[in-house]
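pasting for ref
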Amino acid sequence: MKATNPLRSLEERNVQIFLGGLTISFIGTWAHITAAVFLVQDLGGAGIELGVLTASQFIPMLLFSMYAGSLADRVDRHRMTLITQTLMGLLALSMGIIDLANLESLAVVYALTACIGTVAAFDNPARRGFATEMVPAERLTNILSLSTSVVTAGRIVGPAVASLLVGVIGTAWVFLLNGFSFLAFLAAMIKIDHHRLFPVRRATRTAKPVREGLAEVWADPILRVSVLVFALVSAFAYNYVVSFPLLVADQLKAPESFFGWLLSALSIGNLVGSLTIARLEVVSQRWQYGGATAAALLLTVVSLSTQRWLTLSVAVFLGWALTLFLNSSGMILQQRTSPQMRSRVLALQAVIIVGTTPIGGPITGLVGDLYGGMWANLLGAITAMAAVLLGLGLLRRITGTWQLPPEKVAQM
């Protein structure tokens, strides 16, 4: 686990252009997500309605991501990303226009969110797969972690921007600004120098590409356990879009704008966590299990807190722990599978992290409505700790020891 410069991929000009455009785009995306939460609440929504909003966004990931990943493994990822980003920008503009015309309703918000989620299911493996083609193979962990850093940097600024703008200009203009923010990333993609890329040989067209991707993951017993732990934690520990607004209202007695600041605090930790993993050339499972354990303990503190300053402070460390878990889980998947499966494996990660949300989101919302925001957040903490204990127990049965297995890197 040699540690190196976490910013080393930025030596490549293509990476600078790509990440610069992506940063602007994701600031808009997270402002949009936060504004959608405010809009649902303004339309009379509570815990269940917020859970449905989250499910509307992420159910398409569950349905289409693996197919999208198999498609991205076979086609020009640069061109596919241009198409998906254009469509998401147009959908964001549509949501803003409808809101501006006072035609919004819960059903309309859910429908447009589902459309954006569907396109995002195809964008995620193509965009992230293309990012890996901008650097040599030994920088795979670094470029993916830096991409995540950019996404989380957008999450720091985006919710704060939405919290400031919604009260001044309304949710509609936030949606419109998000639509225009996609132009920055599209401009960056057009400027990419294709002569400086490191393209991976495209996968051949087969009858069952999705099954082949799943089969490669399933064939590795260590990876099976890692994916199980990842799925359990993802289902309940990442539902803060549902659980945090309930905590803000029930325990902290804070205005709804505090939710945006809470997401920003969480995202500061996300950024630090991404850069922590970016320093590594090879990621071990110690980071996955350590991140999940830390997240469970910190989420417990957040759940029990009644002080706004304490909640904001702990949220930074919680974001760090959650990102250690998320990024290390993804890197382990990438390390232990072949490059021709790269987009499918990235898609599988997306299926797990957001595809389980339609299960965990409504359950978390229901628990919050019945028992309060504290229990909505404690549900995630309890599940994460149970997943760690289950994973360690299964690994002991496989390896015969309590020690975590050594790292493995597939041949490039």
